[in-house]
Amino acid sequence: LAERLQGTLQKIKGKGKISEADVKEMMRDVRYALLEADVNLKVVKEFVKNVSERAVGQDVMKSLTPGQQVIKIVKDELTKLMGGEQSQISFSTRPPTVIMMVGLQGAGKTTTTGKLASLLRKKYNKKPLLVAADIYRPAAVQQLETLGKQLSLPVFSLGTDISPVEIVKQAIEHAKEAHNDVVIIDTAGRLHIDEILMQELKDIRAIKEPDEVFLVVDAMTGQDAVNVANNFNETIGITGVVLTKLDGDTRGGAALSIRSVTQKPIKFVGMGEKMDALEPFHPERMASRILGMGDMMSLIEKAQANVDEEKAKELEEKFRTQSFTFDDFLEQISQVKKMGPLDEILKMLPGAGKIKGLENAKVDEKQMDRVEAIIYSMTTQEKTTPDIINGPRKKRIAKGSGTTIQDINRLLKQFEDMKKMMKQMTNMQSKGKKKMKMP
Ligand code: GDP
Ligand code: MG
């Protein structure tokens, strides 16, 4: 979905003038992209209608950057589709808060129960109690107990011989005594929705009105997820949705449809199997992600605004003629720096969101500063013919730049490697040219 939409929007982006025909054509593409991503048909129709109406409006047509206005409208409407604001968890004013997890088998209920408990403890300072109320699936109780151990969180279970309703009753009593302010109930699922399951869930629900009933659905099942959500909402009533396995879902159809079909917000998204892979759902960020503005568009803008084309050409010429010096190196660094903090730039790369740990990555900007300092401490002669940099010179440069001889050596080696690489590249190019000329 992301790729398709990006392509479509890229076409319209740079246009200085937009006609109704342009908008129509674009909306055809958008419609197609959404349907292909398994977004609910009704939702698609509504979405296209809303965007079209706004896009052909007077304000957009007359604005200086109509292309970008249209993209903004698409993003706004996507955000709205997913609920606009991020929605909060409602905690009971009279603890314990009861959260019931429901959903089909394999959707990720048990995993999410653990993740959610861990998140509530960390972000909200809660003391959750996990309740093993799935007595049917083999080893379901054990699965939750293992998670509890792993997270050092208490799990309430009475084995598999006692009814789920009884288990939940006792669990809530136990929570009061043990001062657990949140009770998260991991219920049983089925492969398909059936009467018996629904009745059991209704019975559990009736014990004490839960503060939240979270339906856990697998994002990879697309429209099916939406149908399941509708069904659960109508039969037992849900307060929100947790969309799991979004890490594997490239289409995003479920995320886009669920809210507008069920009128229930997506509260969390599961981004992996690990216990910390649960995130609050942010409609706007999801819209950005879908539009691949993760954030390609602003990255391109940044690059265009800041990298001087003339200078880039000059550098290329120097690569070719092997007259690249430390001064040029310095110039290159400053060009990169102008684009902004490096880690910010990295995050904007499409797909970067999927690279584990990148969100916390800090690109070593200090390293760049050090390189700059070293080059500034060189004499003009040293910068153009680095071969003359011997021991005493290294010592002087290190002192002048507040670095070490090792730093200088590393930089000289990098510079040498770079020159070698350039030489190879230009050799390859000239060989290629000769070959082309041969009959
Ligand atoms: P339940 O039957 O609904 O309780 O489902 P489980 O919690 O047992 O999860 C079923 C499978 O889905 C397990 O292998 C989980 O590790 C996996 N799973 C759950 N949530 C996620 C998620 O957000 N991302 C990924 N990749 N796997 C998940
Ligand atoms: Mg389970």
UniProtKB/TrEMBL annotation:
The keyword Transmembrane does not apply. Residues 265-278 form the SRP54-type proteins GTP-binding domain. One of its GO terms (molecular function) is GTP binding. It catalyses: GTP + H2O = GDP + phosphate + H(+). GO terms for cellular component: signal recognition particle. Involved in targeting and insertion of nascent membrane proteins into the cytoplasmic membrane. Binds to the hydrophobic signal sequence of the ribosome-nascent chain (RNC) as it emerges from the ribosomes. The SRP-RNC complex is then targeted to the cytoplasmic membrane where it interacts with the SRP receptor FtsY. Interaction with FtsY leads to the transfer of the RNC complex to the Sec translocase for insertion into the membrane, the hydrolysis of GTP by both Ffh and FtsY, and the dissociation of the SRP-FtsY complex into the individual components. Part of the signal recognition particle protein translocation system, which is composed of SRP and FtsY. This is Signal recognition particle protein. It comes from Psychrobacillus glaciei. The gene is ffh.
